[in-house]
Design goal:
The protein has about 325 residues and is an alpha/beta fold. The chain contains 13 helices and ten strands. Strands 1, 2, 3, 4, 5, 6, 7, 8, 9 and 10 form a ten-stranded mixed sheet that branches. α8 runs antiparallel to α9, α9 runs antiparallel to α10 and α12 runs antiparallel to α13. About 35% of the residues are buried.
């Protein structure tokens, strides 16, 4: 039986979570033939890989563990993408899990032909115990021609790996890969599919449960503060990607790319503000990045969001004061 879906699970120091994650991927026997689970052991020093190999022993035709030297989350995803035998691929972090609707999702996916399939994602906040469902503002249980959708309805992170199963052929043929040895390596997926995707399908199913507020997680503020330079590298890679595919974009998709880029810039400036040591530290980082984003090779992409456009009018010192005014007046929520 041909594999319909490959689920790639990068593993590093998650023995507290790995059984719940992999256990959520065990489906009824009649559906196991449709599924491939590739667990990529990123040189973990704890028992995570040993625990994963118990699933491999029990379900040898579905679960596979690949051992590799430590190279980070992105390198694991790239290994999984290279090895995938499924028609579609979904990336699942090993502290997250799939919903009990997963078997139904597999059944539906077996009849699918879209380039990207969307489902609902639930954000699970560990400290507060709150769960929030994230969905697109479109009608679900429907297939769309991507370019027929008013793209201003879509958020900048539409192609989030939490909500998407991607066609393996789409990613491979267009050489879309994750950045390696870099945090937030999936950022490229926000832009790379835009000029390539023809059809998308939306299923009114919850699939992905995304755990937040876990100690030591990459979204943890203490961890995040040390990785601002990597966030900047990711944004620069998005600019470079847009420059490379600019000739392939029509007006609507070019505007959507601008929306994505400008949103990431605003998120980055917001992170600088939130994680500042003091106002001078904040200004220095703003000044540096303002000058990077307004280089000639990048500046023509800065014309979608009002705040970025208004900051674009001014030299960095005045732009920074304008930015602070927008925070103070509530135009930007932090």
């Amino acid at each position: 039986m041909n594999k319909i879906l490959t689920v790639v699970v990068p593993v590093y120091k998650v023995e507290q979570y790995i059984n719940k994650c992999l256990g959520s991927l065990v489906v009824p026997e009649e559906l196991m033939g449709l599924l491939e689970v590739i667990v990529v052991n990123d040189g973990t020093p704890d028992n995570s890989a040993i625990m994963a190999k118990e699933f491999e022993k029990k379900f040898p035709h579905t679960f596979r563990v690949i051992d590799k030297e430590n190279g980070g989350h992105g390198s694991c995803c790239n290994v999984g993408l290279r090895e995938a035998k499924g028609k579609y691929i979904h990336f699942l972090d090993s502290d997250d899990w799939f919903d009990e609707t997963f078997p139904l999702y597999l059944e539906r996916l077996a009849k699918e032909d879209a380039d990207v399939v969307f489902t609902h994602c639930v954000k699970e906040f560990a400290k507060s115990g709150i769960s929030k469902v994230h969905s697109l503002k479109l009608e679900y249980d429907k297939q769309y021609e991507f370019r027929s959708i008013p793209l201003d309805l879509l958020p900048f992170n539409t192609f989030s790996l939490h909500e998407c199963s991607y066609s393996v052929d789409l990613l491979r043929k267009n050489e879309i890969t994750f950045l390696e040895r870099c945090s937030y390596d999936d950022t490229i997926l926000s832009l790379a599919p835009i000029p390539l995707v023809k059809q998308i399908s939306l299923y009114d199913l919850t699939l992905y449960h995304y755990l937040l507020e876990r100690e030591g997680q990459s979204m943890d503020k203490k961890v995040f503060a040390k990785k601002l330079p990597q966030e900047l590298d990711n944004i620069r890679s998005l600019f470079d990607h847009c420059n490379n595919v600019e000739k392939e974009l029509d007006d609507a998709t070019q505007q959507f790319c601008k929306k994505v880029l400008n949103s990431y810039i605003m998120c980055f400036w917001g992170d600088i503000w939130i994680l500042r040591e003091n106002i001078l530290d904040c200004y220095r980082k703003f000044f540096l990045t303002h000058n990077i984003f307004h280089q000639d090779e990048y500046a023509h992409w800065l014309h979608h969001l009002g705040l970025v456009r208004s900051c674009n009018k001014y030299p960095a010192p005045i732009a920074f004061l304008h930015y602070l005014y927008c925070i103070k007046s509530g135009q930007i929520g932090m």
